[in-house]
Description:
The protein has twelve helices and two strands; from the N terminus they run H-E-H-H-E-H-H-H-H-H-H-H-H-H. It has helices at 2-6, 34-57, 64-93, 100-133, 138-141, 144-162, 164-170, 187-191, 199-232, 236-269, 275-300, 302-312, and strands spanning 17-19, 97-99.
Amino acid sequence: xxxxxxxxxxNTSMAPTFLLVxxxxxxxxxxxxxxxxxxxxxxxxxxNGTILWIIALDPTLHRPMYFFLFxxxxxxxxxxxxxxxxxxxxxxxxxxxxxxxxxxxxMFFVHVFSVMESSVLLAMALDRALAICRPLHYPTLLTNDVxxxxxxxxxxxxxxxxxxxxxxxxxxxxxxxxVLTHSYCLHPDIAHLACPGAWGAFYSLFVVLSAMxxxxxxxxxxxxxxxxVLQGLGSSEDRWKAxxxxxxxxxxVLLFYMPMIFLALIDRLRVPIPQPAHTLLxxxxxxxPPLINPILYSVxxxxxxxxxxxxxxxxxxxxxx
Length: 321
């Protein structure tokens, strides 16, 4: 810690290392939270890998809804993988110092996959809104060509917006000690350490608002349209069937955005909550969706559930009499 503080001066360029903060209360016994972290990651990889495997191998699932589900699983695996190096370093060996280049690289991939997940959830909301509000026009509106363009737009949004960030942050002047408030590198955390008025911080704010601020508004607007259509359906059975098609997606949306919204409100309103609670909300925001999403879609989506069960059933081998 002392060697780190010696490298900190007012209005200097980025120091060669950042200092990460572990889970409060577990710093003295890092090995205690190693097993939960590894278990969460392995279960996330297994669940999302199963979804990817099922969709890739079954041609009948090569449809818009499952294409977006495929992208969601890719983003979940990528997000969990990007977080693990520093989390496991802290848990296994209590390594708090991380090089600036490694920190910026982790920051890039964490935010790329996080914005990818947000973009895919928005695309899935659009898919459900069109399927329920315009069922007759749905096949002509979401053609393979349109889906390909949506996929390219998601890739451009993730990579194009975030590619400048590591370079901007690396060349900004820093007036605060390079001590981060999480167990991984996030660009709002790094940008807050810069000197007031650093222009790169404004670009960082634009990137955050253009994705995490805009996407949930559009998603909830889509569900407002869906709700109006469901109210107009004649029978409660029709409303139930239509609502079930959105249940898994709406659960995934709430799981992804609610912790983030709580954190934003806490920071904005300056609510005095303990640091462990703040850190726990951050862990929930990043680590819980990759773990829970495969379970949600396996349980709520009949096609996925049936194909998983079919793959798990042992094949019958005929015997020659």
